[in-house]
DNA sequence: GTCTATAGTCGGATAGAC
DNA sequence: GTCTATCCGACTATAGAC
């Protein structure tokens, strides 16, 4: 491999491997300790490179942080694409949506979220990153809001509306969507606490079944009560 | 005022006012920026004292941080005492608990939580503090878990169990309690996001009604479905 | 009890050899 | 492209005057 990329874009004929190693280490460090808590030296050590390598590849610590946000969004989207895709297709068809089918899609979406966020240990790291940025918005807030929260809650709200037989979501559907999604936070950001409360050693297949059941009951209730 | 306190305990015949000012400023700073993100200089400036005053009154930055956790627990407990008191009294009576009354107490508890956490702007600060500590446990984790999460979820779980006609809570009730409480996080840690999603300028009386209604529906569903 | 001054450490970013 | 060496600023904590 003489030159990994023939400079397909202006930037980065640089070592993609080093870049990736830094990014992976940075996501973990920032997710656990935050922008201020994680030092470039710690990240460099974890990535197996020297400290100035971060500046060389990303320009600055802040720029690296923003790049981490982008990577998190990408990985999250990849994990949920199999469920969000069909849901978007259903809602975008223009025709009147069958409430029962909307309910099926909503269930699939929630199951995919459980798989991506609760079953995956890495997601607790992502969740830490995202939660910090929501509390104290910085350079990464817009990325996370525009690519994660806004489309995520809007999709859920539209599915809830469709399952209730409405053409478009209103305030009630958006509120319910927000709360439905926030239930997952108990097992991402609140992973440690929830494991202690439930006396779970770890969150394996059996625990996931229980979580899915509890969420499933909420979805039922959401739609059954209509409004 | 010659000597605010006659040294009732061994420690702190020191200025209680200065101590309080530092504590208030520290809670805000740590809540917004975390232990590493908030500097003693910033806190001192916000409290209107000089930087070494923090060390004088609290010993170290870490000790001040732990003291903030204690203060948050106290203030939270004070805000919810009017609802948690009757609930604890009901459950502690030893006799078989009337399911309908348990449901009433559960509603009161959730309303008190909404008032304390959602209606109160300060609570977003507390929530930031607590959320960081849950993600990356430090010296304050035990305080917050033992005095906040454990008793809070256990109380909710016992009320849910009683409302379902059970003597004691099981895994299902604890799971449901965790998720019910995590709904509030959408409006504490997720305050900014939720306001944007809902297109709310701020969270006033009308918005609180909507939030309470949505939570109330969940409480209904929780108990109606039994298990 | 509160202040100023400062010691000692660690952070991010840059310069320049290879 | 990757390394070592280093600058400079910001931080916490301590010493000592008042």
Please provide a written account of the structure.
Two copies of one chain form a homodimer. Chain A has helices spanning about 15-35, 40-45, 50-60, 60-90, 100-120, 120-135, 140-165, 170-180, 190-200, 205-225. Chain A has about 230 residues and is mainly alpha-helical. Chain A is globular. The model of chain A is unreliable at about 1-15 (pLDDT under 50). Chains A and B meet through helix 1, helix 6, helix 7, helix 8 and helix 9 of A and helix 1, helix 6, helix 7, helix 8 and helix 9 of B. Chain A binds a DNA duplex (18 and 18 nucleotides) through helix 3.
Write the layout of secondary structure elements.
The structure is a homodimer of 227-residue chains.
Chain A: H1 16-37, H2 40-47, H3 52-58, H4 61-91, H5 99-118, H6 122-135, H7 141-163, H8 171-182, H9 191-198, H10 205-224
Helix pairs in contact in A: 1-2, 1-4, 1-6, 4-5, 4-7, 5-7, 5-10, 7-8
Chain A binds a DNA duplex (18 and 18 nucleotides) through residues 14-15, 18, 39-41, 49-57, 60-61.
Distinctive features:
homodimer, mainly alpha, Arc Repressor Mutant, subunit A, disordered N terminus, DNA-binding
Q: What kind of sheet is the major sheet of chain A?
A: none
* Tally of discrete structural domains of chain A: 2
| Whole-angstrom Rg of chain A | 20 Å
Overall mean pLDDT of chain A stands at: 92
User: How much β-strand is present in the residues of chain A?
Assistant: under 5%
Helix content of chain A: over 70%
- CATH homologous superfamily name of the largest domain in chain A? Tetracycline Repressor, domain 2
So, CATH architecture of the largest domain in chain A?
Answer: Orthogonal Bundle
- Unreliable segments of 5+ consecutive residues of chain A: 1-13
Cα end-to-end separation of chain A: 61 Å
DNA-binding region (chains A, B): 39-58
InterPro entries (chains A, B): DNA-bd_HTH_TetR-type_CS, Homeodomain-like_sf, HTH-type_TetR-like_transc_reg, HTH_TetR, Tet_transcr_reg_TetR-rel_C_sf, Tscrpt_reg_YbiH_C
Keywords (chains A, B): DNA-binding
Domain HTH tetR-type (chains A, B): 16-76
